[in-house]
Write a structure and sequence with these properties.
Elements: E1 2-5, H1 14-20, H2 24-33, E2 35-41, E3 44-55, E4 58-66, H3 75-89, E5 94-100, H4 104-112, E6 116-121, H5 124-128, E7 134-135, E8 138-139, E9 143-149
Parallel strand pairs: 4-5
Antiparallel strand pairs: 1-2, 2-3, 3-4, 5-9, 6-9, 7-8
The chain binds acetyl coenzyme *A (ACO) (2 copies).
Residues 19-20, 61-66, 71-77, 97-99, 103-106, 108-109, 112 line the site of one acetyl coenzyme *A.
GO molecular function: N-acetyltransferase activity
InterPro entries: Acyl_CoA_acyltransferase, GNAT_dom, NAT_camello-type
Domain N-acetyltransferase: 1-136
């Protein structure tokens, strides 16, 4: 498995982006402004993340996903660590990530990679998504915000 930048000629791996974010409209907005990196194994793309500069010195992982058949093998952790290393090399001072109140595994993963919880964007998923979303048996309502100094 290796991680590389998506080239300008390539299509974004939309099916993977939709695993992390059900809103195609929001995805299209941030992929136009951010940089997408992909994990490739034997010629197929099995993971991705998108980095988006948000404020001076601050960058955010706005989307990260691993193909379902490849989850649970450490690829997500490698992608998060790659995003952290790249953002540090680019000179950013802070990296951020946000996930749903219901995303227990994601919250563990991000904290294992050094992120700390810094806040809650209450009702984020009510304000930005038209359909009600459910995960792990509860409604997705709030966004948990995490951050790490680089
Ligand atoms: N339950 C418990 N722990 C979990 C879970 C889970 N469901 N998922 C990940 N973890 C934790 C584990 O503790 C694991 O640590 P360990 O190796 O010490 O046991 C750690 O995360 C790393 O696991 P990986 O195997 O590297 O994770 P994976 O390759 O499956 O990728 C990811 C994780 C990206 C969240 C993947 O499951 C996925 O694509 N999910 C669907 C899309 C998604 O939810 N994306 C994130 C949305 S938020 C955003 O995009 C900003
Ligand atoms: N992972 C995922 N979900 C869990 C877990 C877990 N480890 N533990 C409980 N849940 C969720 C499940 O989603 C379950 O819902 P479901 O039936 O829809 O799947 C729900 O919790 C209820 O589970 P119960 O079986 O009723 O919970 P249990 O009898 O195990 O009691 C408790 C939970 C009290 C947290 C118990 O595990 C415990 O005593 N843990 C050690 C002490 C502790 O941590 N106490 C809380 C500290 S905070 C405080 O005291 C204020």
């Amino acid at each position: 498995m290796h991680i590389r930048k998506l080239t300008p000629e390539e299509q974004h791996p939309i099916a993977l982006l939709l695993l992390a974010d059900p809103s195609l409209k929001l995805i299209e907005e941030y992929i136009a402004r951010g940089e997408c990196f992909v994990a490739e194994e034997e010629g197929s793309i099995i993971g991705e993340y998108v980095l988006l500069p948000t404020r001076p010195d601050t960058i955010e992982i706005v989307n990260i996903a691993v193909a379902e058949h490849s989850q649970g093998k450490g690829i997500g952790r490698e992608l998060v660590n790659d995003a952290i290393r790249r953002s540090r090399e680019w000179g950013y001072k802070t990296i951020e990530i946000g996930t749903a109140n219901s995303s227990v595994g994601q919250l563990l993963l991000y904290q294992k990679c050094g992120f700390r919880i810094v806040g809650v964007d209450k009702d984020f998923f009510i304000r930005h998504y038209e359909e009600k979303i459910y995960e792990n048996g509860i409604q997705v309502i709030d966004m948990v915000r995490l951050s790490q100094d680089l």
